[in-house]
Amino acid sequence: MRRARADVMGGRRPGRAGVSLTEIVVAVIFLSIALMPLLGLLIAGHQGTAQTLHQTKAFLLADDVVEAVGALGYEEVDAALPGEIATNMPVGSPLYTRTVEVDPKEDVSATIDGKGKFRVKTVRIKVVWQGGGDEEKRRIELVALKTKVDR
Whole-angstrom Cα distance, residue 39 to residue 111? Predict the structure, then answer.
């Protein structure tokens, strides 16, 4: 009788058809352990991309000031400029703080052929933001020079 039963089941013993729950659990654990390093790489890549994005946005905010200073005349770059630019931040940039300082003294660094003076105003731009997920603040600083030659 036993032999007939095995023949009916296709040569298998009864109760051994399919995959056991233990085999499935072992396979899931094995795959989880194997995929952990890959997940770590994905997280690190995302954090690196987020930091690069913040740095690029900060640089663009500082570059806006450099462009604005370049468009102004020498006499227009004065002590009122920082307040004007700091309040003119683009929409959607609450994570960033931009400060602008105009050096009040003019550097007369040279004369040209003894006839004219070369004047320079220094504009310092600093953009600060909270780094990607950590407590450390990050910053970018640029210096723009506005020059004039008096003849």
Answer: 62
Q: Which two tokens stand for residue 64?
A: 């806006």
Most confident residue range from 6-15, 23-32, 43-52, 138-147:
23-32
Whether residue 44 is contained in a domain is answered as yes
Q: Is residue 51 part of a domain?
A: yes
User: At residue 151, what is the residue type?
Assistant: R
Give the range of the structural domain holding residue 95, as residue numbers without chain letter: 17-150
Dihedrals phi, psi of 23, to nearest 5 degrees: -65, -40
Percent of the chain with pLDDT over 90: 9
Q: How many domains does the chain have?
A: 1
In a domain, residue 10? The reply is no
Residue type, 63: D
pLDDT digits (tens, 9 = 90+) for 17-75: 678 899 999 999 999 999 998 888 888 888 888 888 888 888 988 898 888 888 888 88
Q: Is 136 exposed, middle or buried (0-12, 13-18, 19+ CB in 10 A)?
A: exposed
Q: Could you give the CA distance from residue 56 to residue 143 in angstroms, rounded to a whole number?
A: 17
Residue at 141 is within a domain? yes
